[in-house]
Write a structure and sequence with these properties.
By secondary structure, the protein is of the alpha+beta class. 35% of the residues lie in helices and 25% in strands. The protein is globular.
Amino acid sequence: MDIGTSGCLEPIFDDTEWDELVSSSIEANPFLMSSFLRSIKQESSRFVISEKGRAVIGICILNSFGCIPENLHAFCLYQGVFFPHLTLKNYSDENERLRRFLRVIECLDLKADPIHLSFHPKVNDLRAVEWFYHEAHRSNLVPRIKSRYTGMIEIKRFASFDEYLKSIRKERLREYRRSLETKYKIDLHSSDVKNFLNLYELTFGRKGQTVSDYLLNRVNSIVSAGLGDGSGKLKMLYSEDGEPVSGAYILSDRDTSIYLFGANDSKYRDSYGSTRVILDSLKQAFQESKKIFDFCGMNSPLRGEFKSSFNARLIPYFELDLNVRKEI
């Protein structure tokens, strides 16, 4: 069955129409915007369910990315569902979200194709999934819900960047001050994608991991597209000799900045480049009056500990896998 023919899911082809729907929801985030979806060649993933001619829920149904054994769904967060023009102020809003969510699950099960969904932290009520599959004894799909974690800094809680600095681990603050005392130069609006990708490979290489050409091309596409349309900013730190030391790619929308990629040359470990580019990126987020700085995952012990030292608060979110039911 082609998607959309069931009367459930309707494709959205127009970027402006989709982005306006996304922006009207409390789940709005950079991963849902058309510019990002185009950067990963997933512009055909945009669908809505409408009632009385008005979109009431949106969803990204991602096509296959091909064979990426490292992480099939890398860099695709918070695209599960969103609720256009629906607030979350009282119980009636919660009930309406449940009703709409249930319609999506019914449509996806009818389509009977396996799907992976990552939900925005504000989508924290997945009872519709449990209710549908409790009642549907002959469902086409089988659900698997998994909890994940990210780290967020709620920028509006702090009067200024200097006030925020008082809240981070003292070790990070010392590193930042030492880095500022060096003659290293930082470019907060860099276009040096080539050297960033080299640093990205070095970062994984020191862990004994190899970045596939497919994955590296995907990172290149995301960064290049973001720099092209202004939704992303590349930060690069250089040594006195002009050698690239550290880099970070920040993906943003109106309210949120996301630390999507970080890369470092371990040869310059004592320069504290990673701390420098993260805190300078946060400083810029304060200057741009962002509401949230998202570290984009705190699921591994070492990286999670490092990110938490910037006073990133642990925030849970959910992933859902709907797999084809196997006949016994």
